[in-house]
Amino acid sequence: GAYCAITPERENYYLSWQTGKTFKFDIDDQGNVVGKTRIDPIGGSGYLFINPFILDPLTHNSMFLSAGRFIWRNDSLDAIPIIGDEYNAISQGWDRINESSVGGALGNPRISAVGMSPADNSVLYYGSSIGDVYRLDSVNAVDVDNITRTTLLDSIDGYVSSVVVNPLDADE
């Protein structure tokens, strides 16, 4: 009932459930779970009940996971071993990549959707629980500060439930 991703050739399976708990699974060809490890970042907080994440559509070895007003990136998913720990989050490979301006001083807005195009995996879009959409023009550096805010409807608050980027043009 939450987010999931499967890498090509079914090498890795990533699944999440309530409040940001995200896992890497080892599943055999018969569909049996051989092992799993909880992989959400230590230090992440403010997760939505059903919390978004995506894999980099080109490398499949990077995950972008929202946590409250921030995006966390892990560029070494393959290096995370399946150790069977389903209770403790990890710190291996995680960096917080944005100094968020989500929502300013308005209540407790959170990142509610994340999207990326295979045409340019350095550009990341994300939406908020108060209806704003943002674009990071470079996800290759920690503490990126070039965020552009676009209000979908200035007079109506909303909830961005998904972000879909053109697979042929990361500007659309």
Oligomer: single chain
Assign the structural class, choosing from mainly alpha, mainly beta, alpha/beta, alpha+beta, or little secondary structure: mainly beta
Q: List the secondary-structure elements in sequence, H or E.
A: EEEEEEEEEEEE
Radius of gyration: 16 Å
Strand order of the largest sheet: 1-2-3-4
* Major β-sheet annotation: 4 strands, antiparallel
The pLDDT mean sits at 84
- Count of individual helical segments: 0
Low-confidence stretches: 142-147
Distance between the termini: 29 Å
Can you put this structure into words, describing what you see?
The protein has strands at residues 4-6, 13-17, 21-27, 33-38, 53-55, 63-67, 70-74, 94-96, 111-117, 120-128, 132-136, 147-151. With 172 residues, it is mainly β. Strand 3 (21-27) and strand 4 form a beta hairpin. It is globular, with a radius of gyration of 16 Å. The model is unreliable at 142-147 (pLDDT under 50).
Short description:
The chain has 172 residues and is mainly beta. It has strands at residues 4-6, 13-17, 21-27, 33-38, 53-55, 63-67, 70-74, 94-96, 111-117, 120-128, 132-136, 147-151. Mean pLDDT is 84; it is low at 142-147.
